[in-house]
Write a structure and sequence with these properties.
elongated, three-stranded parallel β-sheet, 18 helices, 43% helix, 441 residues
C-alpha cells in the first residue's frame, strides 16, 4: 500500500513552501488509495512548541489535507537509540569531538587546497584513552554515521537519475553531544518502520537523501521512492526564503484566500500543466501527476491567489457563505438578493462588508464637473427608497426623457452618483438593496 508522510517541525507556522511538500505527499497517497501520515518532528525540546503543533493541524484541516494518523517523534526516542546501537555494533557509528571552530578551520584548509570540505574522519584514529580524555575535557561528542565511499544512486520521481559520490559528503552527524536525535536518524527509522513508500520533499534535501539511503540499507531496509521538487522563488526569481515568514498559511487565510484557490495553484505550480481552478479535492487528486513537475526554480506570486479566490467564490451558492453574509451585517431577508448582487464583484469574502456598507449607508457620490447639472437634475427624478427590480430602468428612462442623454453618457454618471464607483454590479440588482441614497450638496 502507498504510504506517505508530512513531517513538519513544530517550531513555527506552516508556510507556502511547507504546503508544497504536504500537498504532494497527500495527493500521492489519496490518488493511490493509500495512507497519509502527519509526523510531528519534535525531537528538539527547546524549539518545539505545542502551540505550533496545534497550528499545523488547524492549517491542514482548513485546507482539507486530512491525515490518517498522527505520529510524534518525541514518543519514539527509544526506537532511534535502538537503531544507533545497531549502527555502533556494525562499526558504522563513531563519536567525534571537534569544536565548531576546529571544524571550520579544517573546511577552510581543504577549500584552500582545492579539496571538497568533507570531514576528515580524524575521530576514527582516536584511541579509547584519547576519547575518554576528550570526553572529560569537552563533554560528550557528536555521533557520526560512517559512509561507505561509493556512489549512491536512485531514480528520482522529478529529477530523474541521481548519482552522488559519498566521498564528496561528510559523514553526517546523527546525534548531538547533548544527546538530541537529529532529523536524519529519526527520519530514517520512521520511514523504515512506518512503511513509507514515497517521500516528496524539496530539492535542498538531495544530499541528505543520499546519506539516508545508505543508513537505511545499513539497517537492512529498502529505501522508499524519492522525489525532490524545486524550491519556490519570488515573482522576479528572487530568493523566497526571507519572505516565507509573511507567507504563513494562517496569514493567507486572514487575507481571505480560499483553500481551493491555494491548493489549485500549488498542485500545478512548477509543472508542465496550466494552473486550473479546481472546486473540490476529488478534482485536485484526479488531475495530479508528479511526473509532470520540473526541476527548474518555481516562481510564486501571492497576488496570483486572489483572482483564483474570486473565481472560486463566484461559483458558490448562498448556503455555502450564509454565515459570512450574516457576519457582514446583511439581514437574513436580504441575504439571497445581496449574495446574487455581490458574488461576482468580490475578490475575497472580506469584500462583502464594503458592499453591505454601501447598501446600508449609501456612497459618497462621484460626480465629474461636466456632469454636475445633469446629475442634479437626475436626482430630482429619483424617488426615495425602497426600490424594486424595475427602479433602475424606470429612473434611467425618466432621466433620458428629461435630458436627452443616452448610452454611456446617461448610465455612467448615474452609477457613479449612486455607488461612488465606475464599475460594479448590475445596477438593476444593486438598486433594490440600497437603503440610503446620498445626495451631493
Amino acid at each position: 500500500m502507498t504510504t506517505t508522510r508530512f513531517a513538519p517541525s513544530p517550531t513555527g507556522y506552516i508556510h507556502v513552501g511547507n504546503l508544497r511538500t504536504a500537498l504532494m505527499n497527500f495527493l500521492i497517497a489519496r490518488k493511490a488509495g493509500g495512507t497519509f501520515i502527519l509526523r510531528i518532528d519534535d525531537t528538539d525540546p527547546e524549539r518545539s512548541k505545542e502551540e505550533y503543533v496545534d497550528a499545523i493541524k488547524q492549517d491542514l484541516d482548513w485546507l482539507g489535507l486530512h491525515w490518517d494518523r498522527v505520529e510524534r517523534q518525541s514518543q519514539r526516542l527509544e526506537r532511534y537509540h535502538d537503531a544507533a546501537e545497531r549502527l555502533r555494533g556494525m562499526g558504522r557509528f563513531y563519536e567525534a569531538f571537534e569544536t565548531p571552530t576546529e571544524l571550520d578551520l579544517k573546511r577552510k584548509k581543504q577549500l584552500n587546497m582545492g579539496r571538497p570540505p568533507v570531514y576528515d574522519r580524524a575521530a576514527l584514529d582516536l584511541g579509547e584513552a584519547e576519547r575518554d580524555a576528550l570526553r572529560a575535557e569537552r563533554g560528550n561528542g557528536v555521533w557520526r554515521f560512517k559512509l561507505e565511499r561509493e556512489r549512491i544512486e536512485w531514480t528520482d520521481g522529478i529529477l530523474g537519475e541521481i548519482s552522488i559520490d559519498a566521498a564528496s559528503v561528510s559523514d553526517p552527524v546523527l546525534i548531538r553531544g547533548d544527546g538530541q536525535i537529529l532529523y536524519t536518524l529519526a527520519s530514517v527509522v520512521d520511514d523504515t518502520e512506518m512503511g513509507i513508500t514515497d517521500v516528496v520533499r524539496g530539492s535542498d534535501h538531495v544530499t541528505n537523501t543520499a546519506t539516508q539511503i545508505q543508513i537505511m540499507r545499513a539497517l537492512g531496509a529498502e529505501p522508499p521512492r524519492f522525489a525532490h521538487h524545486s524550491l519556490l522563488t519570488g515573482p522576479q526569481g528572487e530568493a523566497l526564503s526571507k519572505r516565507l515568514g509573511v507567507l504563513a498559511l494562517r496569514d493567507l487565510r486572514e487575507q481571505g484566500v480560499q483553500p481551493m484557490a491555494l491548493l489549485s495553484l500549488m498542485a500545478r505550480l512548477g509543472s508542465s500543466d496550466p494552473v486550473e481552478l479546481r472546486h473540490d479535492m476529488a478534482e485536485l487528486i484526479e488531475g495530479f501527476d508528479i511526473s509532470r513537475f520540473s526541476s527548474a526554480p518555481t516562481r510564486f506570486d501571492v497576488k496570483d491567489l486572489f483572482p483564483l479566490t474570486g473565481r472560486y467564490l463566484h461559483g458558490l451558492d448562498l448556503n455555502t457563505v450564509r454565515a459570512e453574509v450574516a457576519a457582514a451585517g446583511v439581514p437574513d431577508d436580504l441575504a439571497a438578493p445581496f449574495w446574487a448582487m455581490a458574488r461576482d464583484n468580490i475578490t475575497t469574502l472580506h469584500d462583502l462588508a464594503g458592499w453591505w456598507a454601501l447598501c446600508r449607508d449609501g456612497a459618497e457620490p462621484l460626480v465629474a464637473d461636466e456632469d454636475r447639472e445633469f446629475v442634479a437634475q437626475a436626482m430630482t427624478l429619483l424617488p426615495p427608497p425602497p426600490y424594486g427590480p424595475d427602479s433602475w430602468a424606470d429612473w434611467t428612462a425618466a432621466v433620458k426623457d428629461a435630458t436627452g442623454r443616452k448610452g454611456k453618457a446617461l448610465f455612467m454618471p448615474l452609477r457613479k452618483a449612486l455607488t461612488g464607483q465606475e464599475r460594479g454590479p448590475e445596477m438593476a440588482t444593486l438598486m433594490p438593496l440600497l437603503q440610503v441614497v446620498r445626495a451631493r450638496d
